[in-house]
Structure formats: C-alpha cells, structure tokens
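Request from the bench team (R.T.):
"We need a structural guess for the complex before ordering more zinc ion. Sequence and SMILES attached. Just send the tokens back."

Command: build protein-zinc ion structure.
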Amino acid sequence: MAPECPTDSTRLLIRLIIRMKIGDHRKMFEDNKIFQRQFIDLMSHFNDLQIHDICYDEDEITRCAKNCLELPSTDTLLEIYGKLLTNSFAITDDYLSNVGVGIYLSTSILNHSCAPNAVVGFNGTDQTVYALLDIPEVRVDKICISYIDVALPSWMRRELLWDRFFFYCHCHWCDDYARYIDHLTAFLEQFGAKPENTVKLPRVPHGCYMLHIFGDF
Ligand SMILES: [Zn+2]
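Reply to R.T.: structure attached below.
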C-alpha cells in the first residue's frame, strides 16, 4: 500500500517547524532591499484563527512528525500555521496549475486589491513581481497584487478574503459593486419592491447575482 502523502500545506508547516527549531526564522531569507523582513515579522492572526475555529490538520501533522520531530506547543503551532495560511503563495507552472505552496517573505508584504497593479509569476520556485500598469514609485504601499481570483464576483471575493485573510475588502471594485446594489435596491423600492426581495433578486443556482456591471462577473 502506498504511503499517504501529506498535503503541500502540511509539508510546508513541517519545514517551518524545523526552520524555527534551528533559528532560521530570525534570518533574512530574502536579499531584497525594498521588501526585506524576517519570518517572525509575519502576522499570524492568532486570535482570528481561534474566533473562526480554523486549525491545522492535527492528525496529519502528528503522523508526519511521528518519532522524528518534536512538535512545539499547540499555540506555537497555530501561530506558525496562521503565518503560513495568510502569507503563503500557491506556486504555479507555465499552465497556471498549482504545483506547490511557498512563503516568499519579501512579496508577502504586498497588499491586496481586486484591481491589482502587479502580479506574481513563477519560474520553477523563483518568484517575480510583474507590473501590470506603470508604477512610478516602487514602494510596498504602492504595489498591490490580488490574493484571489479577480474574476470571481465581488461578494464571493469579499467572502473568500474574509474567510482566509480576515479582512473586508474596500478596493474600488468591491465598494463600487456594493454601492451599485444599494442604488438598485433604492431604485426598486420606489416601485414598491421590498428590500429583502431586491437583495435576493435575481440569483442563479450557484448564488451569483446576474446583474452584469463593471465587468465584475
Ligand atoms: Zn476588492
């Protein structure tokens, strides 16, 4: 019987535990003067993980560590997992298929926008940031990438960002969509439509609003 292969996240979590044990978490892994930082600088969202009842796969971690790795305390493990969850990148091949997961300290500092001005790409495990627009000033607060698929509808993007990254997106794509729904609701209310009906209007089976606007769907 073939041995069970742990998920990419579990393998990365095990590698991070080992690197923390040997003190690598205090080293600068990235030799990039613009984005330089350490693993310990990453946010873990520890409280958010507990509030949302999100945890690593305890059975799989225990199975992987069996007899060869002493695991840290549950809280420390959750801290590391939180850093992994909110800062890791899916590594893709030339056909944009996911081939792994990794933490890139320098680029994990970049903020999210559903209308990003940059995108990350991979050559093997080497990561490069490509500008989609002219970015006159190369500063971390001037560069935005998308953490999720921007082709998803606004409500789904907000939901995913909230569930995975614990923030409510206020990029102009999301806010414009919300404003549009408000205007539509107010408009329909003039004709006697009830708000609860207008908000539920018109949905397709998988829950996506069928109101095409802003190229957002
Ligand atoms: Zn957004």
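Two things stood out. The first strand starts at residue 88 and ends at 92. The longest helix spans residues 172-189.
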